[in-house]
Write a structure and sequence with these properties.
The protein contains 9 helices and 9 strands. The chain is of the alpha/beta class. A hairpin with a 4-residue loop joins strand 3 and strand 4. The longest helix is centred in the C-terminal third of the chain and has 17 residues. The protein is globular and about 45 Å long.
Length: 210
């Protein structure tokens, strides 16, 4: 399912996902996924980034500009052993509607198309967990409307846990199953989306969705 990290700018959402990914090193605490310990500062465990097998989709697509869409998608896929490729190339292409884009380069794509390719590349690296850090933040309304159905399909059809960072409540309500509300680096609430939203006052919601 999808767990949304929700909160105003500066609340700690990106810092939290970067700690999960191993891009920053917390001074204390632990990170675990399904029994696998990524980080345990007290126990002296710190799994390197490349061994965590985490897919990360950023606000900007960060595609390789000199490569075609096909080559961008295949970049992580080729680096995974064949017996570990549980997400097929053709499945991702079909899921994200990328067939007509495969021979194009990123400069010729719209913002929404680039994010779809970035999402596909992350999936084809065969991640244990997918992190999405405000993937719609840089898109206009039309491009957001274009990309949202693909993310919905991904959440429904892929047996993959997703952490989705957003400060847009409408995205959270549409996409997420659970919601973690952060305030000043601390967990203010966690639970099913409807339950957490019902706990928030009108003033707080107005601030959070700015």
């Amino acid at each position: 399912g999808v767990t949304a990290l929700f909160g105003r700018s500066g609340s700690g959402k990106t810092s939290l996902v970067n700690a999960i990914a191993g891009l920053i090193r917390p001074e204390r605490g632990h990170v675990r996924l399904d029994g696998l310990v990524f980080l345990d500062r007290a126990g002296g465990v710190e799994l390197p980034v490349e061994r965590r097998r985490i897919g990360y989709v950023f606000q900007d697509a960060r595609l390789f500009p000199h490569m075609t869409v096909r080559a961008n998608l295949a970049y992580g896929y080729r680096r995974v052993a064949a017996n570990e490729r549980r997400i097929p190339f053709t499945t991702v292409v079909d899921l994200l509607g990328l067939e007509s884009l495969l021979d194009r380069r990123p400069v010729t794509l719209s913002g929404g198309e680039r994010q779809r390719v970035a999402l596909g590349r992350a999936l084809l690296a065969q991640p244990r967990l997918l992190l999405m850090d405000e993937p719609l933040a840089s898109l206009d309304g039309a491009r957001k409307a274009e990309l949202l159905p693909y993310i919905e399909r991904l959440a429904t059809e892929m047996a993959l846990p997703i952490v989705y960072v957003s400060h847009a409540l409408d995205e959270v309500v549409r996409l997420a199953h659970h919601m973690l509300l952060l305030e000043a680096g601390r967990v203010a609430a966690f639970g099913l989306v409807a339950e957490v939203v019902s706990q928030l006052g009108a003033g707080q919601l107005a601030v959070e969705t700015e």
